[in-house]
Fold these 2 entries.
Entry 1:
Amino acid sequence: MIRVDDATLRIKKIRQSRNGAFCIADLTTNFGEFKVKDPLLDQFEEGEYKATVWVSEIYLSQYISFGKGVTEIRARLHDLQVVSQDRLPADRTPTELDPLDEPTPVKGQTKASEPSKEQCRGAAQHADKRWDDFKKPRPAPAPESVEAVDDGLFDADLLEAIERADPVKLDPTVDRALLRSQAAWLRKQGYDFDPKLQTWFAKR
């Protein structure tokens, strides 16, 4: 795993997919530029984010999209910590193939080395600090209708948090289509996504 400080993520939202809107990003680092199409991006809004990122894999992706061959160097993110955010100007980006619709790519991959104990300890401390911030009280009204949640959209713990109008932290490792549906439901109920905490808060 590689930790990259002072990285820039330019996140764009693609809205024309039959599976619902999704996000992609251009990752700029001091050692190269990469495409990122990980599920965790689907919770974010468009913008330019300065962040520390943990890269678990760098690989070559090749696929056919709308009759054209596409070759990309991609980075797979294990985690990220947002430092600052700026809005992006409106950009009519070309049509992008939804990662859910991508055929299995041919990958020539380079895995980052296994993290050392010190790296793991540092990542754990980083996570603990973020969870401490997450636990700080932030009053909010309850969403309009928890009963309207489709069966299976949220597990029991998340439903309890929603009923109490507590902050909601989604699991980005679940099925990507499920994550998109969860994020879309929270937005519809008036929740705002905090990119620094990667947590949803009901509006006050």
Entry 2:
Amino acid sequence: MAEPLVVFFYGLVTSLIFALYSVGFSLVFGVARVIDAAYGIWYTTAAYLVYALVTRLLLPLPVTVVVVVASMVALGISYYAVLVRGLQEKVEMIMTTFLVALMAQYLIVAIFTNFPWSIPALFPGSTQVLGVSLFNQQVAAAITAFLLLLVLWYLVYRTKMGLAIRAVAQDKEAALLMGINPDRVMAFTLALSCSLAGIAALLQAPNSVISPTMGWPMLTLAFAVVVLGGMGDFFGAIIASFIIGFSYQLITNLVNPLYSMAAALAMILLVLWLRPRGLFGRSLE
């Protein structure tokens, strides 16, 4: 009985963090029409920032959270102003963001070396639930991710900024005629997506090993999520995150962790072959 509960709980944690991370990737595509190949490196950057703040500077958790989120918001705004605004909807965008990711990765290696580092759990200890021992870090990550997804839903569907985001995603020219500033909306969306990547790293990286290449698997999984759920679709990304997350955890626990990423890639190919617009999204054309 314990093994199915362990798989279920950690599948739930994985799915919630995937959802939080992937929604940012999906929103960027929906609003800016950008497939951001650098999105994985923002996750890596945030993880190393958490490492530096917690293990080198010994800052308390509240200060660490504020610094990480503020830094990622500033990074997102700068990223849009310097790069995305001039290249959005252009073929060169994917290659440019890929090169940005490689440059950032080599910069991380230059600062922190290739040696894998570990971050202590921000919420140490464990809790017994139905006879299963669950790490407090994972419990806190699941609760935090769930609450933030609710906040995101409220932001996207119940606020003026959310209405502007959806308007720009649907038709940028029409939104401009309605008095909406697309540049401001896109800058906000990039800042939001980078902050979501940072929060995902803050939840996932502690009590694990970090490395300069850790963002690439997360980018692959985010791409799998948005392909499965539909590019730019909020609820599709969340549902797809649960499909990918539980599949990933089942394969990791019951088969072999080495096959988890291969299964995600196979799912991308299958969906692109059978339904290019995703299970819930609109066509990419």
